[in-house]
TrEMBL record:
It holds the Pfam family Kinesin. Keywords: ATP-binding, Coiled coil, Cytoplasm, Cytoskeleton, Microtubule, Motor protein, Nucleotide-binding. Its main location: cytoplasm. InterPro entries: Kinesin-like_fam, Kinesin_motor_CS, Kinesin_motor_dom, Kinesin_motor_dom_sf, P-loop_NTPase. Belongs to the TRAFAC class myosin-kinesin ATPase superfamily. Kinesin family. ATP binds at residues 110-117. It comes from the Eukaryota. The gene is KIF3B_2. It is found in: Cytoplasm, Cytoskeleton. Residues 23-354 form the Kinesin motor domain. SMART domains: KISc (SM00129). This is Kinesin-like protein. It comes from Goodea atripinnis.
């Protein structure tokens, strides 16, 4: 597909910027026949060729000579595929990019019951069956633990779009409807969405499990645990590193992991009442997503209807914007789902033509790490200042103690010397007892020594003080 087919072709083909364009990567995963489908005698109508990246679909109602439809994707995964294969092949490079400061989005799309939640979440108790989201946690924190000259801050948020309302899955009051906002600095964001800083894979997995408990899930005839909302697990990775200019630079990568609700037909799901209402909203937002994809790949379209649904607004950057995107299209092999599977393959095929413009988010204004670093620097300075003052105070106290000690020492020494002399004198003198007489009155206490009696203490002749023998 040439760039001319995408509405961003002017940007894509405009010399220097051309290299920033990157197609959405689309992979398809086919789950095995379910027990119910096996019991119902369903036939397999799909052939998956993982070497060629091709998936072939046979119309069960077509005459045998009608050629089968073949679709080619970046990768295809058959019913034997392992969760690890999908992660390592389709997701790992994208998460790697997020660690380098790119935005990344992985979204699972497909009809109800085809394995979107299985692929994104998987089964947490079985390490082999853990899905994309928990595998990304392990990947992110393993990479961080191996890094040497960088500082990282990882935070996560979890939201769902239920019946066109955004709900915070990490907030106690998750019935509160959150608003979508747009800001020239941060782009589109959800106001008041909680975000949790996590230090390791266990902590972030705990955050995910808390959110999962609040997610809207319900029974339908097509899936016992059908997702009734679109869920987005958002991981923001901030990395600070000293640049060649000697300054610290921050890169921020945002990873959106999206488990969409599946498109569904009321005749097959048997949805009624609340379930039917949910289904109507789900289908509406999925068709808005389809319209955005069509507009993006249709060269004549000048308007992309991102504003038609909350889902498309939230995914705006991931579809034609500043992000690297992987779409995992999930399909089932049963002949009964021929129409839905064909529709998914067409949808996915169209998405392959979307061109994104990913770039490294360097030193963005909303980097929390910078805020934290500034706060730490401020507190450090405060502590240092307090420390200096305390040190100064301690020093002054020490000096004055030392001074008074040494003065006391000196006094002691003087006294000691005096006493020594006095005692020496007292020993030497037989009648060495004297007292101080001033104006004929006894003034000082007795002392011993050989002061010469009747000799004035002062030598200027004006003194009235004499040592007098007792
Ligand atoms: N690759 C797979 N291997 C084994 N079982 C799978 C696979 N994919 C899906 N399943 C099983 O199929 C059932 C439906 O899967 P899941 O709930 O993931 O579908 P979904 O696409 O999320 O549906 P919905 O749109 O209704 O939420 C589950 O029981 C799941 O364990
Ligand atoms: Mg699901």
């Amino acid at each position: 597909m040439s760039d001319l087919h995408c509405p961003q072709s002017r940007v894509c083909t405009a010399g220097r910027l051309r290299k920033h364009c990157e197609a959405v990567r689309v992979v398809v995963r086919c789950r095995p026949l379910s027990r119910r489908e096996e019991t119902a005698g369903c036939e397999n109508i799909l052939e998956v060729d993982d070497k060629l990246g091709q998936i072939t679909i046979r119309n069960p109602k077509a005459p045998p000579d009608e050629p089968m439809k073949v679709f080619t994707f970046d990768s295809v995964y058959g019913w034997n595929s392992k969760q690890r294969d999908i992660y390592d092949d389709a997701v790992r490079p994208l998460v790697e990019s997020v660690l380098h400061g790119f935005n990344g989005t992985i979204f699972a799309y497909g009809q109800t019951g085809t394995g979107k939640t299985y692929t994104m979440q998987g089964l947490s108790k079985d390490p082999e069956k853990r899905g994309v989201i928990p595998n990304s946690f392990e990947h992110i924190f393993t990479q961080i633990s191996r890094s040497q000259n960088q500082k990282y801050l990882v935070r996560s948020s979890y939201l769902e779009i239920y019946q066109e309302e955004i709900r915070d899955l990490l907030c106690k009051d998750n019935n509160k409807k959150l608003e979508l906002k747009e800001n020239p600095d941060y782009g589109i964001y959800v106001k008041d969405l909680s975000s949790v800083v996590t230090k390791n894979a266990t902590e972030i997995e705990h955050v995910m499990n808390i959110g999962n408990q609040s997610r809207s899930v319900g029974f339908t005839n097509m899936n016992e645990r059908s997702s009734r909302s679109h869920a987005i697990f958002l991981v923001t990775v901030e990395c600070s590193e000293r640049g060649p200019d000697g300054e610290d630079h921050i890169r921020v990568g945002k990873l959106n992991m999206v488990d969409l609700a599946g498109s569904e037909r009321q005749s097959k799901t048997g949805a009624k009442g609340k379930r039917l209402k949910e289904a109507a909203k789900i289908n509406l937002s999925l068709s808005a997503l389809g319209n955005v994809i069509s507009a993006l790949v249709d060269g004549r379209s000048t308007h992309v209807p991102y504003r038609d649904s909350k889902l498309t607004r939230l995914l705006q950057d991931s579809l034609g914007g500043n992000a690297k995107t992987v779409m995992i299209a999930a399909v089932g092999p049963a002949h009964k789902s021929f129409n839905e599977t064909l529709a998914t393959l067409r949808y996915a095929s169209r998405a392959k033509k979307i061109k994104n413009k990913p770039r490294i988010n360097e030193d963005p204004k909303d980097a929390l790490l910078r805020e934290f670093q500034q706060e730490i620097a401020r507190l450090k300075a405060q502590l240092e200042e307090q420390g200096m003052l305390a040190k100064e105070r301690r020093k002054r106290r020490r000096d004055s103690k030392r001074l008074s000690k040494s003065m006391a020492g000196m006094e002691e020494e003087i006294l000691w010397e005096k006493n020594g002399d006095v005692w020496k004198m007292a020993e030497e003198a037989e009648d060495g007892r004297h007292c101080l007489i001033e104006g004929g009155q006894e003034k000082a206490s007795f002392c011993y020594g050989i002061q010469e009696a009747n000799q004035p203490i002062c030598t200027d002749g004006r003194c009235h003080r004499y040592w007098d023998p007792i």
